[in-house]
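FORM 12-B: Structure-to-Sequence Request
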């Protein structure tokens, strides 16, 4: 009984910490509910010393739509993480398509700020998005931001997606220069010089914060 209470306490503390806490160990916190895979319970596993990189992160995952829909995904499982430079097409595939498409379709940006964004000069603007697919804040904010991007008409090819592990580390040489402490982080560059960033959650809304950054008022 004492062991069960300790496990539950660890799970509660982990969930409360959010996506800004950098862990010093490389083990996945024990979940209060076990992962279910094809009607078979799977115990919590340690985070591998070297997590899977990029598109290879989903190796071995089911591609059949019915099988994927029936699966209860555990995004703390390192084999689901997307690391390094991410091709956003992967957000349309299981296990990420469920949270991505739901967040994208449900979000309705405020038209007042979208109208202002459409009047901005974006020729010299690029955006870098640093996210963790294990992070609930990333899974909420990134689809919403991409809805804004598409309604705005901002070219997707001018956006770089970088995936990090649970310690906020990405397998990229230049990554440390971005000074990432929390995810998601949306960084706006004008002529390759940082103009501003949205960190973890917007101050007002994603569209208003974006417009404020580009207007130089944030």
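FORM 12-B RESPONSE
SEQUENCE OUT:
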């Amino acid at each position: 009984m004492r062991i069960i209470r300790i496990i539950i306490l660890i799970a509660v503390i982990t969930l409360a910490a959010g996506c800004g806490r950098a862990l010093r160990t490389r083990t996945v916190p024990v979940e209060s509910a076990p992962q279910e895979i094809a009607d078979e319970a799977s115990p919590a596993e340690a985070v591998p010393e070297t997590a899977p990189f990029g598109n290879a992160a989903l190796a071995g995952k089911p591609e059949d739509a019915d099988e994927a829909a029936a699966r209860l995904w555990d995004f703390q499982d390192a084999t689901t993480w997307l690391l390094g430079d991410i091709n956003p097409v992967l957000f349309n595939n299981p296990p990420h398509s469920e949270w991505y498409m739901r967040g994208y379709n449900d979000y309705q940006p405020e038209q007042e700020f979208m109208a202002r964004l459409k009047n901005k000069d974006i020729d010299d603007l690029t955006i870098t998005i640093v996210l963790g697919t294990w992070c609930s804040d990333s899974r909420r904010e990134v689809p919403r931001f991409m809805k804004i991007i598409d309604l705005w008409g901002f070219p997707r090819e001018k956006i770089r997606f970088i995936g990090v592990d649970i310690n906020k580390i990405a397998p990229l040489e230049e990554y440390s220069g971005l000074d990432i402490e929390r995810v998601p982080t949306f960084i706006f560059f004008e002529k390759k010089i940082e103009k501003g960033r949205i960190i973890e959650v917007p101050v007002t809304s994603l569209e208003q914060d974006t417009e404020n950054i580009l207007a130089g008022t944030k």
